[in-house]
Design goal:
The chain is of the alpha/beta class. It folds into four domains: 145 residues, 3-Layer(aba) Sandwich (Rossmann fold), CATH 3.40.50.12160; 116 residues, 2-Layer Sandwich (Transcription Regulator spoIIAA), CATH 3.30.750.210; 86 residues, Transcription Regulator spoIIAA (2-Layer Sandwich); 61 residues, Beta Barrel (OB fold (Dihydrolipoamide Acetyltransferase, E2P)). The protein is built from 15 helices and 22 strands. The strands form six sheets. Strands 1-7-6-5-4-2-3 form a seven-stranded parallel β-sheet, sandwiched between helices. A five-stranded mixed beta barrel has the order 18-19-20-22-21. Bound molecules: iron/sulfur cluster. Iron/sulfur cluster binds next to helix 7.
């Protein structure tokens, strides 16, 4: 069956989006699920804002939705398989609900484009990460029976003028997307192909969003980007240039009660200025996510990570010297093309050297279209990949427990984010080092969004348990 596809990649570069079709307001419901990285969660809040501005209201029940959206990740094959499986769970509901539309957003949409409509007949709309402004048009066309696609990548789009609608939020912590895309070309990564070139969002719009969040009770913002350290914005009016270090200070200056976090840093771009900015403001959290991916120089070169293990270790040393006690986490890939047992041991060694508090750990999954897929053979057998990953996970569990055990007896300033998952009479919050603490509420009359000083009595590898010593 030929599918009549309305493509939107004829829109001229930077052409402002003008709604062609007005949607009946207020009657339609949308349901959205986000997968993968924090950027996708943040994007889903942008999508929610665009839909609400076009008369949709959000629902948490997909059975009652007129529009179901999956905001997808494509970083590993498994992430895409998860989406394909999830789609099958909507089949019955869609067959029973006339006019229900299903849309695929995010990196899988961008990677597969119109092919996704061929492969997944249930899908009506395919929209890439830079195409969300055109959603009302895509929905109107799909609603008239015409499957629609927009996977145009942009060099300007930052959605700076769109105020995200906070989904699933705890009302205390929020993401602020400060830039989009990535100019690094790590050979294993699809992101440069699915999210395009780097562009930094105007500094004023970031500060306004952070101020609005603070004024509405949020007490922590995480500045988001694939590679935040390369944030670089020049105001065409004043010709003033704002680097990431400067941006950190500007956001932190909003209020000492507003915590500032950021993610993700590419080791080659995190500058001394950023570290010094972190020491200048107590409310810039003492935590850095610093993906290493591998500990072996030959593999780092094949990955096109542009640093050596020695260089990375020196960066860890510099961080710990300038910010003593700074929490560091990482990303690790096991079993990259041609990785030997010796190479693997060097990854374990750099983990032990860096004493990560936590890491996101995966085995290599070849992604079509990437440099690695074109140039290298995915030659490490899966059982060896899995065994090496298991060793990496076991080591990280040991490092996490050690790091938490060293905190027993210490007192941390904790931002209360809400009830602990297990007990309603306990608070859950995090320290500046991004460690999770749970502690009894007792009679301090605290609310979520308040700060408390908590003494640590015990721990697991994931959590510190303590009692309130004092309140701020
Ligand atoms: S820095 Fe590398 S791994 Fe990270 S998003 Fe960019 S290309 Fe991918």
């Amino acid at each position: 069956m030929d599918i009549n596809i309305k493509r939107h990649d004829e829109m001229r570069q930077g052409e402002a989006w003008q709604p062609i079709v007005q949607i009946q307001s207020g009657t339609k419901k949308f349901y959205i699920e986000s997968y993968g990285c924090q950027m996708n969660f943040s994007d889903s809040e942008i999508v929610a804002s665009i839909l609400q501005a076009n008369g949709f209201s959000a629902t948490t029940q997909f059975e009652t939705a007129d529009l179901v959206l999956l905001n997808t990740c494509s970083i590993r094959e498994k992430a895409e398989q998860t989406i394909r499986k999830r789609l099958t769970e909507f089949r019955k509901v869609k067959e029973g609900r006339k006019g229900m539309l299903i849309g695929i957003l995010g990196c899988m949409a961008e990677r597969l484009k119109a092919q996704l409509l061929e492969e997944e007949k249930l899908v009506d709309i395919v929209a890439g990460p830079d195409a969300y402004r055109s959603l009302p048009i895509l929905i109107a066309e799909a609603g008239s029976g015409q499957k629609s696609v927009n996977v145009l990548l942009s060099r300007e789009e930052t959605y700076a003028d769109i105020s995200p609608v906070r989904l699933n939020g705890n009302g205390v912590t929020a993401y602020i997307s400060i830039m989009r895309g990535c100019n690094n070309m790590c050979s294993f990564c699809v992101v440069p192909f699915t999210r395009g070139r780097e562009r930094s969002r105007p500094v004023q719009s970031i500060l306004e969003e952070a101020q609005q969040l603070f004024d509405s009770g949020f007490r922590e913002v995480t500045l988001l980007g694939q590679n935040v350290d390369s944030y670089y914005y020049t105001d065409t009016g004043t010709n003033e240039t704002v680097t990431f270090a400067k941006l950190l200070e500007l956001v932190a200056a909003i209020s000492p009660l507003l915590r500032v976090r950021f993610s993700t840093s590419h080791p080659k771009d995190i500058t001394r200025d950023v570290l010094l900015a972190m020491t200048k403001y107590k409310n810039i959290c003492r935590y850095i996510h610093l993906p290493v991916q591998s500990g072996n120089n030959r593999i780092l070169q094949l990955m096109n990570r542009t640093y050596t293990r020695e260089w990375y270790k020196a960066k860890v040393d510099e961080i710990k010297k300038i910010i003593p006690g700074c929490g560091i986490s990482s990303d690790i890939i096991a079993g990259f093309c041609s990785e030997t047992e010796e190479d693997h041991k060097e990854t374990m060694d750099i983990m032990a050297y860096s004493k990560y508090d936590l890491s996101y750990m995966y085995f290599y999954s070849e992604r079509p279209g990437t440099l690695a897929a074109k140039r290298y053979t995915d030659d490490v057998p899966e059982d060896i990949k899995k065994r090496r990953l298991a060793e990496i996970v076991a080591l990280q569990n040991k490092l996490s427990l050690q790091s938490n055990q060293e905190d027993i007896g210490k007192i941390f300033e904790v931002l209360i984010e809400g009830d602990s998952k297990k007990k309603k009479d306990e608070w859950m919050g995090r320290s500046t080092h991004n460690k999770v603490l749970v502690f009894p509420k007792e009679n301090f009359g605290l609310q979520k969004g308040d700060y408390a000083f908590v003494k640590v009595w015990s721990c697991t590898k994931a959590t510190l348990m303590g009692r309130i010593e004092n309140i701020k």
